[in-house]
Amino acid sequence: MTHTVPVLAGPAPRINKIEIDQPWTWLSRGWADLRKAPRVSVTYGLFFAIVGFVLLGALWFLNWFYLVLPFSAGFMLMGPLVAVGLYEISRRLDASETPTLNHAATAIFRNTSQIALMGVALMIFLLAWIRLATLIFALFFSFRPPMLDNFVAEVFFQPESVPFLIVGVGTGAVLAALVFAISAVSIPMLLDKPSVNVATAVAASVQSVRVNLAPMAIWAALIVLFAAGGLMAGYIGLAVTMPIIGHATWHAYKDLITFDT
Q1: Within-domain flag for 13
Q2: How many domains is the chain partitioned into structurally?
Q3: pLDDT band at 239 (very low <50, low <70, confident <90, very high)
Q4: Has residue 17 been placed in a domain?
Q5: Which residues contact 46 (CB under 8 A, 6 or more apart)?
Q6: Where is the signal peptide, in residue numbers (predicted)?
Q7: CA–CA separation, 249 vs 37, rounded Å?
Q8: 8 A C-beta contact, residue 7 and residue 204
Q9: pLDDT given at position 111
Q10: Does residue 97 belong to any structural domain of this protein?
C-alpha cells in the first residue's frame, strides 16, 4: 500500500513512500527512455558535454588548472537544471508522444519564470562553491597554486593534503546535499505542472528526501557515480550518462509525487 505525507494544506503535491531499491528501477526506466529516443537524448547530452569540455579547456589554457576539480564538481551542481530537456523527453514519452530536439531545447518555456528561479538558486550554490573552493585552496597552499608539473604531488601527497581534502570534500558534500534536497524533484515538477511555483516545488523536493532518506541517499550516490564516470571520460561520457540520469530523475519524480485533485 502507498503511504503519502502532505506537503502543504489544500490541493498540493503529496510525497509517496518508496522501497529502498526503487532507485534501481529509475535507472532501468531511464535506460529504457534513452533507447526509445536515442538520437535526441544523446544529442542533447552531447551538447552539454561539449560545453563542459570547452570550459575545462579554457581553465587549462588560462593556467587555472587548479580549478578543474572544483569546476567539475560545480558542473554537477547545475545538472538538475541542465537536464530539463531530458525531463521533457521523458514526459512526452510517458504521454506516448514522439519527442524532438526542439521539444528538449525549449522545455524551459513550459514554466519559464519558476524554472529560471530554480536556475538562479542553483547558480548561487555554484558561485558559493567556486568561491569557497578557491578560498580553501588559497588557505592551504599559501595563496600560491601549485604548478602543473607537480600539481598531483602537491595536492595529494603533501602533509597538508589530508586536511585540505577533508575540508574541500566536506564543504562540497554539504553544498551538494543541499542542492540535491531542493532539486531532487522540483524541476521535473515545475516542468510537469506549470501552475506550481518554485516554493511549493522545493518544499516537496525537501520532503521527498526527508521521508525517503535511505533510498534517496542511494539515488544521490548513483547520480554522483554516473556523473563522475561521465566527467572522468573527458566530459564526453556525459553524452550517455547524463541522459540516463536525466530520464531516471523524471521517473523518480513520478514515483515520489502525486497531486491532490
Answers
A1: no
A2: 1
A3: very high
A4: no
A5: 236, 239
A6: none
A7: 16
A8: yes
A9: 94
A10: yes
Q: How many residues does the chain have?
A: 261
Task: Provide the pLDDT confidence category of residue 140 given band limits of 50, 70 and 90.
Answer: confident
| Average pLDDT, integer, range 22-28 | 97
Per-residue pLDDT for 160 more than 50? yes
Residue-averaged pLDDT of the chain: 87
Instruction: State which residues form the domain around 55.
Output: 24-256
What DSSP letter does each residue of the chain carry, written as one string? ---EEESSSSS-EEEEP--TTHHHHHHHHHHHHHHHSHHHHHHHHHHHHHHHHHHHHHHHHTT-GGGHHHHHHHHHHTHHHHTHHHHHHHHHHHTT----HHHHHTGGGGSHHHHHHHHHHHHHHHHHHHHHHHHHHHHHTTT-PPPGGGHHHHHHSSTTHHHHHHHHHHHHHHHHHHHHHHHSSHHHHHHH-TT--HHHHHHHHHHHHHHTHHHHHHHHHHHHHHHHHHHHTTTTTHHHHHHHHHHHHHHHHHHHEEE--
How deeply is 2 buried, as exposed, middle or buried, from its count of CB atoms within 10 A (0-12, 13-18, 19+)? exposed
